[in-house]
Give the backbone structure.
Amino acid sequence: MSTLNQYFKKWVARVDGKLNELLPRENAYPSAIHRAMRYSVFSGGKRLRPVLAIASYEVCGKDPERALGAACAIELIHTWTLIHDDLPAMDNDDFRRGRYTCHRKFGEANAILAGSALLALAFRTLSRIRPYKVGLRLIDGIADAIGSVGVIGGQVVDKLYENKEVNLPALDYISIHKTGHLIKAACWTGCVIAGADKSKERHIAKYGECIGLAFQVTDDLIDGDGYRRIMGGKETRALAERLIAEAVAETENFGKRGRCLAEIAKFILERRK
């Protein structure tokens, strides 16, 4: 675990440095939105998704710095989802990670605009990836992952069950789409930039699919919500363990190079214990 901590420390610092370059300065006019964007991006997140993109690249490629820009785009998109998820029309949350949510700090209108601006910046960043065909493929795949059949679709179904008792199939849909799709896309992104073959892509995609769902299942196990409320603690823990075991099995197809991804999968299961 100490090795994994060092890995995260190294790449979180690189991701934060690149994000600082990509984002407009706080005092750039109009400063209200730029302060809101920076406030939300630098709010203490673990940077799991960009690190997954980089680690997935390392499984298939030789220079992980090549994945840095796309990894940052994934984090910008993730921040967009969090800002909009917290809005009064959505979950109406006042705090995230111990700080005021964007709309509580800067107002609802600025929060909506800041989220939209982060999404635009993410796709501008992806558009500058070379060769062009790689950037275009990433734009296509990531847009699909976050659209109405991805993250947004999961959010829609989540809203449909607001103040209602959610059943297991609906909960699976919400978790796979709202949480899992962006995690899977992060893993796939690194693989695409590395120019991996179809077989490696399939293994990485399956890995991302498993840890994406496991991430939400373990959140529910910790919070006593969702899966734990429907299935009970023992069954929820068993589901999380099965998903992580499946993810780790996919990493074995890469030999020693897959160890980091395996350790990240185990970290997802054991985090915050």
Summary: The chain has 13 helices and two strands. Residues 91 and 150 are 18 Å apart (CA to CA).
